Structures are given as C-alpha cells and as structure tokens.
Amino acid sequence: MIVHDTDFISVDYIESKSLLLTKWKQANLTVEQFKQELQYARDWCCNLRVKRTVLNQEHFRFVIPDELYPWIEKEINVPGYKAGVEDFVFVVAKDSQAQLSVMQSFDKVNSIYAPKFFLDHNQAFDWITSNKRGKQLIEPIQPPDEFDPQIDIQLNEDQTKAILQVEIPIDSLPHSLHAIKQHMDKMKFMRENWQKFSKLTKREEGVLRLLVKGLQNSEISEKLFISDKTVKTHRRNIIKKLECKHMVDLYRYADTFGLI
For the segment 172-199, what is each residue's pLDDT rounded down to a tens digit? Predict the structure, then answer.
C-alpha cells in the first residue's frame, strides 16, 4: 500500500511484513526538500510502528551536506530506533558522491544504526524479510574473493590534475567507496594539519612513531639511545605542537603522515 508519493520519493507499507519500502526518484532535491521527505518517512515509520525499512537509493543523486549529519541522527534515526525499527538496509546509489555522503551520515556521528548495503532491491528485500536463519544465507555485500582493479591514469588538458578511471568488480563497490571515503578524509586532514606536523623534528617523528605503537617511555629511550627524561620532553613537545589531547589524535597524525 502506497502511503506517500511525491516527485522525490515514494513510500510503500507492507503490513504483513511490518516493512516500509522507501524509494528515491530521479528528481533533484534541495536541502529543505530532502529534510521534509525524510521527516515524512520517519513519521510513517513511527506511526505504523514498522520493524523493518528498506531505502532504495538507486536513483538518489543528492549529496548530503556534512552539517546535516547530526540532524539526520537526531531527527530521523533516533526516533525510528525508539519506535522499534530493527533492520535498516539500503540499495546502493549509482551516484558515487551521493553514496559516499550516505555512508558518512552514519559514520561521522557514530550512529545508533549500522546499516547494511545491497546492490539491488530484490536482494535487499529478500534479506530483510528472511528469518534469522535465512539471513545467514543472504549476506549483505561482502568483499570479492578476487580483487584486481584495472586503473587507467590520464592528465587533464592543462596537465595540472590526474584523472583516475578504476574498473572494479561490482560486488566490491560499497567497500571500494568506503576506502575512497577514508582516503579523502585522510587527505583533508593532511591538508588542514600539514603546518602543525611540519614543526616536528626528525627525532620527534621517531618518538611519535614508537609512541603510537604502544611503547613505554623506557622502551623508546632504549630503542633511540636517549634518556627517559629526553623522551618525556619530546613527548611533551609533540603533544604541544600537534595540539593533541588523546592518544587517538596522535595515532591519526602518525597514520596520515606515513609514520606507521
């Protein structure tokens, strides 16, 4: 039964399955239209007390702005979770930037949901309507057994940018997009924090490399042939220069700038 249908989205309720099927259409969206349609879908989920929902985003082309991520979690995901939505699955968007933004909308806010992604509607529907035993036989997208991407590199007309065309198995698409997203995040962090990192001396880089590997001050001093007191000084200078408060922040620097 179609309970909601606009130029942007259609929502189908299957009472026997306690399931809401939401399908985005090809029309372009503004931020306000996107928010409004999500609110409609949320209200139907809550009012009908559905336990399962499928979001078919095959034709979804809207790139979700970063500033909307907290709003989606607070206004859409949390109310749905409280209303009893247990299973939450997506059909992958063909638009890679749109798909990346969907994945980030969960990752960036440590969402209460860990959605599953499928390549087509039938696979998503079969999984979400199966019992627990059946679900084990219909797995979400897994990494392919073999992965040998074909990469073609070209330069743009003024030779200032490289154009990468990557041919990958279709089964690896969500995982590859996730890896691309991680790379983009790392490059952004590098660009924004290059000046801070460049203030480190070579010795401080060496201490940082060992520090994030979990070595204690005494172990670092032994490896680098310096005193414990010197290690503590380097450690203090590293934290000050990088403006870090937690070990995870130091690890991010070490990972981004190739120290590990």
Answer: 666 777 778 788 889 999 999 999 999 9
